Amino acid sequence: MKIRLSCVILTILFTLPTLSVGQDRNQASSRSQDRITKEVRHELLMLPWFGVFDNIAFRVDGSTVTLLGQVVRPSLKSDAENAVKHIEGVEKVVNQIEVLPTSPMDDRLRLELYRGIYGYPALEKYALGVQKPIRIIVKNGHVALEGVVDNEADKNLAGMRANGVPGIFSVTNNLQVVPSK
Question: What topology is assigned to 104-177 in CATH?
Answer without folding.
Answer: Histidine-containing Protein; Chain: A; (3.30.1340)
